[in-house]
Amino acid sequence: MPDRVSIRIDGELIHAKLGQTILEAASATGKFIPSLCHLKGLKPVGACRLCLVEVAGVGRLLPSCTTPVQDGMAVTTRSERLDHYRRMILELIFAERNHICAVCVSNNHCELQALAKRLGVTHVRFPYSYPKAPVDATHRQFVLDQNRCILCTRCVRVCAEVEGAHVWDVGGRGVGSRLVCELNRNWAESRSCTSCGKCVQSCPTGALAAKGYAAEEMVKRAETISRLVEAKGARA
Amino acid sequence: MSKARVATVWLDGCSGCHMSLLDLDEALIDLAPKIELVFGPLVDAQEFPEGVDVTLVEGAVSSHDDLHLAQKVRARSKFVVALGDCAVTGNVPSMRNQIPPKQLLERIYVDGVNVNHRVPSDGVPPLLKQAVPLHEVIRVDLHVPGCPPPAAAIGFVLTELLAGRKPELAGKVKFG
Ligand code: SF4
Ligand code: SF4
Ligand code: SF4
Ligand code: FES
């Protein structure tokens, strides 16, 4: 079997590696597909659905971060329909928790906020749910603020796959789903957390932050996680 | 050319959006001859007038007074702009929304002070259960997020509206 395939992305012919996802093939050629739960180096899970694309001949929209390329595939990454759904997904994410950007540690450095700007979300058409969401500030160095969590599970994956500690999981169901530390303990009581901070660096929003930062001060380096994984792979 | 009748309204916000409007500085001089400011914290009118062309609303809808004024604004304005995050998302005023108003007021005015343990009731409007964005209570024609929205964005909005165009803000503005 050849290890290269030819696909079209927005009409442009692209040579991709077999086994690559549509998102990987697109970013390799500098094409932008919005994404939130995807972080290069972590296993894709298709949690946020922002990276949805149209694939010719397939009736439903497919998440490009989990869909592998196939020879002859024709992918559309931008259309009115996709814009419509992507904006709606962002609005639902905002409506689900309490995002007060002006006073958030991640203001101006947040992937969710930046994507909302880029995709032209100027307001949320759905009624906000204003849930009562807990803040876990028990850890010596870090804070988890569930008001800002979008359940992307990047923290869950980086901790399990890269650090090997598997401190985080998602508990509950539906809108009641919450990030949980081990078997629903306070973070300070975690038996396996090494305080490496990888979850904090991976988190696209202000949900996980280092302590001691005021609004706008938390700048993260998610790309260091991707580089770390790449370096580990090269050594193996 | 007759002047556009413009109003500004200050609901549950910090006045920062109005400050940002004033931050237009010398650009205000160009706008001034085209505008008649008919209501708002910057002028003296007591009653929100009829026949307003554009109303800029700062602040979340937080009290019964806010709600009534918002409804009046809608009925009497051709074009309503939600100006700033409080009007657009609820923002900081909405941080009380998990706490029932009675409990909130008692925590502040009874438990939280050393003297005069009493929730004020004279001359202050009762709170709504939650502070909500403007578009949850009236139809809004344009949303200008930002805390506050940059003066340049407000200037752009006013200039476009005065030229008879609907400002296209997608990709130009952000929350926070
Ligand atoms: S996490 Fe991002 S979108 Fe949410 S409040 Fe903070 S800056 Fe805004
Ligand atoms: S600090 Fe490291 S070990 Fe602790 S929860 Fe975060 S990623 Fe896991
Ligand atoms: S805490 Fe951050 S990384 Fe973890 S699921 Fe929530 S938003 Fe994602
Ligand atoms: S990036 Fe693909 S579903 Fe989140």
What key attributes describe this structure?
heterodimer; A: alpha+beta; Ubiquitin-like (UB roll); Alpha-Beta Plaits; 3-stranded antiparallel β-sheet; globular; B: 176 residues; Rossmann fold; two-stranded antiparallel sheet; 7 strands; binds iron/sulfur cluster; binds FE2/S2 (inorganic) cluster
Task: Explain how this protein is built.
The complex is a heterodimer of chains A (about 240) and B (about 180). Chain A is an alpha+beta fold and about 240 residues long. Chain A has 2 domains: about 5-80, Ubiquitin-like (UB roll) (Roll); about 85-235, Alpha-Beta Plaits (2-Layer Sandwich). Chain A has helices spanning about 20-30, 80-95, 110-120, 155-165, 200, 220-235, and strands at about 5-10, 10-15, 50-55, 60-65, 75, 135, 140-145, 170, 180, 210. Chain A has a 5-stranded mixed sheet, covered by helices on one side. Chain A has a 3-stranded antiparallel sheet with strand order 6-7-10. Chain A has a two-stranded antiparallel ribbon with strand order 8-9. The mean pLDDT of chain A is about 95. Chain B is an alpha/beta fold and about 180 residues long. Chain B has one domain (about 5-95, about 130-160): NADH:ubiquinone oxidoreductase-like, 20kDa subunit (Rossmann fold). Chain B has 6 helices and 7 strands. The radius of gyration of chain B is 17 Å and the shape is elongated. The mean pLDDT of chain B is about 95. At the A-B interface, helix 3 of A face helix 4 of B. One iron/sulfur cluster binds near residues 101 and 206 of chain A. FE2/S2 (inorganic) cluster binds next to loops of chain A.
Task: Give a brief rundown of this model.
The complex is a heterodimer of chains A (236) and B (176). With 236 residues, chain A is α+β, with helices and mostly antiparallel strands.
* CATH C-level name of the largest domain in chain A: Alpha Beta
Mean pLDDT of chain A: 96
Which percent bin holds the helix content of chain A? 25-40%
Low-confidence stretches of chain B: none
CATH 2nd-level architecture of the largest domain in chain A: 2-Layer Sandwich
CATH class of chain B: Alpha Beta
Architecture per CATH nomenclature, i.e. the level-2 architecture of chain B: 3-Layer(aba) Sandwich
Number of domains of chain A: 2
* Largest protein-protein interface: A-B, 26 and 28 residues
